[in-house]
User: Fold this.
Amino acid sequence: MLSSFLIALREGLEAALIVGILVAYVVKTDRRFLLTPIWTGVGAALGLSIALGGFLGFTSSELSERGETFFAGTTSVVAVALVTGMVFWLKRTARALRDELHGKVEEAAMVGPIALSAAAFFAVAREGLETVLFLYSNFRTVGSKTPVVFGLLIGLALAISLGYLIYRRAINLNLSKFFNITGVALIVVAAGVLSYAVHEFQELGWLPGETSYIWDVTSWLAPDSLVGSLLAGTIGFDTSTSWLQFLVWITYLAAVIALYLRTTSKAPVAAASAK
Assistant:
């Protein structure tokens, strides 16, 4: 639940801020007629994200057991790569995000409404597709799905609410601190997803050491128990973890967090000041 809440909150708020910047700019420049193509692009991006989620669920259910293992492992690696790139991208470009989006609106507005819809679509679609892919991979690491779905819904609702309040300037959220903290938390979740991918490839026989466990506590902690699911969904804890899984998990975690904390960048203040 905690991991899906974090993913939905972080990615949802980022998307909400992007939409807020686009909407606020056309309102500020007294071009409200451009709101329709913007919302059309946003709606199309959301629709594509939902379609991807349905495709991933349908595809995995239709595959053979070995095919499903390969599919789960591959999508997990792709999700980790995308999320890792995303947290570093936001840290690097946050200051210029508002100006970049304003420039895209101006360029697209000169071409026509279709171009503006496309600009809004691509601005939001990246967040949506990354979220769906990462959530799908994260869902695979936990036992019980109900708390995960609950956390997802709460996270999205809170993200939309915060995005609206920031747009209306009803609250002053320290986005620099928020994105830095959630960035580290997402890296921790991503490490767990990567460990899960290693396990899947070990099951396929592509990686060695499947039964060389650093610990195996399955006898007293069921993977689908509340504690087991919570640990799996947050830090990637597996009740039976191989040495290779652990080494990949700790190496990724140490290297990426160290690099992320060493990367210097100002806060995404521009995103907070939408108007």
Remarks:
- Residues 2-272 form one domain.
- The longest strand covers residues 213-216.
- The chain has one domain: 2-272.
